[in-house]
Design goal:
binds zinc ion; mainly alpha; single chain; 69% helix
């Protein structure tokens, strides 16, 4: 991939990483706040706050997973293998990368993955 394009995707990924890190940190703070509120609540309040905690937990898990994918893509840029499909090794379509710069697979392999015809390879880094 051309250096200029790599820089472009790198910037997209870095700004995404920044937002995700902020979001993960904020969710963790909200979670802590919800925990300390627990002791001084009646039962009805406690039910709604436990629901809120679950919601926060799910959100922070999603963010964290997403953050890992973004970091994975950034390390691929550093290694010079960014934009290659991790299954078939072909170049990932640029329009796909533009929309999903953390994509690990070309469209064909992604569709196979979604149909369960391909195994999701583990992230090494
Ligand atoms: Zn592929």
């Amino acid at each position: 991939m051309e250096r200029q394009k790599l820089e472009h995707y790198k910037k997209l990924l870095e700004s995404r990483r920044l937002h995700l890190r902020e979001s993960v940190a904020r969710t963790e703070e909200d979670g802590r706040a919800a925990q300390t509120e627990d002791s001084a609540q009646d039962i009805a309040d406690r039910a709604s706050s436990s629901y809120q905690k679950e919601f926060l937990f799910a959100r922070s898990n999603n963010d964290r997973q997403f953050l890992r994918m973004v970091e994975h893509a950034l390390s691929n840029i550093a290694e010079g293998i960014y934009g290659e499909c991790e299954s078939c090794g072909k170049e990932i379509n640029e329009r796909r990368l533009e929309a999903v710069p953390w994509a690990r697979h070309c469209i064909a392999c992604q569709e196979k993955l979604e149909r369960g015809e391909l195994e999701q390879p583990a992230m090494e880094n």
